[in-house]
Amino acid sequence: MGHVNLPPSKRNPRQWRILDLVSAAFFALVFIFFLMVFTPLGDSLAASGRQTLLMSASDPKQRHRLVAAIELGQQRIIEACPADAVDHMPCEDPRRNSQLSREMNYYRERHCPPPEDTPLCLIPPPSGYKISVQWPECLYKIWHSNMPHNKIADRKGHQGWMKLEGPHFIFPGGGTMFPDGAVQYIEKLSQYIPINSGVLRTALDMGCGVASFGGFLLAQNILTMSFAPRDSHKSQIQFALERGIPAFSAMLGTRRLPFPAFGFDLVHCSRCLIPFTAYNATYFIEVDRLLRPGGYLVISGPPVQWPKQDKEWSDLQGVARALCYELIAVDGNTVIWKKPVEDTCLPNNNEFGLESCVDSDDPSSAWYFKLKKCVSRRSSIKGEYGIGTIPKWPERLTAPSPRSTHLKNGADVYEADTKRWVRRVAYYKNSLHVKLGTPAIRNVMDMNAFFGGFAAALISDSVWVMNVVPSRKPSTLDVIFDRGLIGVYHDWCEPFSTYPRTYDLIHVSSIESLLKDQASGKTRCNLVDLMVEMDRILRPEGTVVIRDTPEVIERVARVASAVRWRPTIHDKEPESHSREKILVATKTFWKL
Asked: 375 and 522 share a domain?
């Protein structure tokens, strides 16, 4: 039988359905194309897809393949993290840590996720980010768009913390206990403390707010480490660092703070609300561990002569008496004590049951080290490093530290290290044209500081240096503090406790040693993760200087391209006899 040609109206209804579906699909695809290209939804969907891709990169096998490909030199560019990660701090993530215990503020301490739970991606800058205001103008104003968090300005503006004016946050220099300004407050303290004589150099400001106290102490040649947790104020440490003030995110909770014993000449608390006498005075004991013999402790605000806190104030005075602290003054709601120079006090009969630690206790062990309820003995560390015996500033910068002699040939190594870094820094500036000594660089980090020679060689520049002593290397951080510099212990197989985009220059000598176990020589973590973390804390257009063997520098250069840096490799300085190359890289200013 032959085919019969039916008119369109007589066609099978099934044929119509097929044609309708094909036409609908065609027009739907055209509609989606225009939607993706010409509307913001396309960007949103792309970001969502990118986030899915990034989360999949946290799969251990996929992560391992990506890391291996980058280190082998395959052309890979690490993707950007989602836009909501602009302020991400891996070890101080409120969403993750809020599930932990509240006891002694454990949940506000460092709690780092394992690498396999962390997407391998680069933290983007916020929308509207600008290159930071340069020092010293940044002490008084910063770009609002770099950290558009208005909460502190709204809540604390009347106390002089900060306020929003046009495109800037303005910092008048006030604080809760010094609303008229830090300058007047420091002048008041100088009636009782030798602030401007060179006797005091290193200070610790606990619960620092936006760090105006430490910022204005710089004019007195006092270098202050300001710290606060990532709490309800959220961005206080981020504001401090954007202002060019030394600062660090930390919580005095269940562990020792990551500083050596007897390193700070002055410890300050202005309404820091630390319960010093709680848990058998555990927090006061930690302050005593940090405070140099003969140093000063200043507490302003509760409970000092504070309404309805008579018992707390009485207990605080009782602990100070039990430790034989000399009461210098009580001025309104501010109390000033001086720590005794010698171990002349404990053991004694006291209501808090305070006892001295055993001789075998190392008071400078402070990386993930639980707080102790015993008082660190000054005699546990040999040497003359108390206030009055240690040289005044600036002589103490180059004078041999009494604690450097605890290492084999320590005094000779210390002197050679100091001279070596003077030569190296001059080479960085004059031959490699690193912008040290210019307004472009204010916040500097040395990731493997040893005796702090790199920082000491920069002392004439308008910079401050965070000297990091790796926790598994010889404990030389006490020497760094003795010479009037500051720093912390850290393990570089974990993220650092700071916000993104907080350092202008990051320096590291022997980067591969940060990845290996010192005893066995086995690799503990990988170079890619370390350099992604360096990228997180480095500002756009910031500089990285890395020195190591030629083979390591070649690997570093491959990873540098993957994290979107512009690297160049240079020969070492002519006077050096080591087998090294130097990589200088610039972080590109990219945006989502």
From this structure: no
